[in-house]
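sanity check this record:
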Amino acid sequence: MALLEAYKKNDPAARSLLEVALLYPGVKAVLLHRVAHQLYTWGIPFFPRLVCEISRLITGIEIHPGARIGKNLVIDHGMGVVIGETAEIGDDCLIFHGVTLGGKGGFGKRHPTVGNRVMIGAGAKLIGNITISDDAKIGANSVVTKNIPAGATAFGIPAKVSLPTEASNAAE
């Protein structure tokens, strides 16, 4: 229920929780990921990837069963979102369509770690074993290959970082 309420809170187009539950692909992708991730953590072969593939076919969102996702992840629109095997996402994050949390190759931790309450704009690419700290914002179509500090905004290719200032904090 908290997941559905997170969608309603973040999407002004959402009219009801029933509409969100039945018609929003991000909800389906997150719920199917929970099934796939549990099977993955139990060490069951093949079926986690099968659930992932079915989810991708239904939603257009690909979340590797090994990815760790916190509470209330909202994937708005969803199509084209890819979340890699070693990616970690904190609580209450918002991701728009076309976002990639991709790896640089090799073995071990190779995908981004995303903190709590992070917003990632449409089409953004976060690549490698980097950390996006709590409350950061990533601009649409940005390419991020370095760590982003808490509360910062990253934008552009390659992404530049803008830190909150005292003046902007006072205005809010």
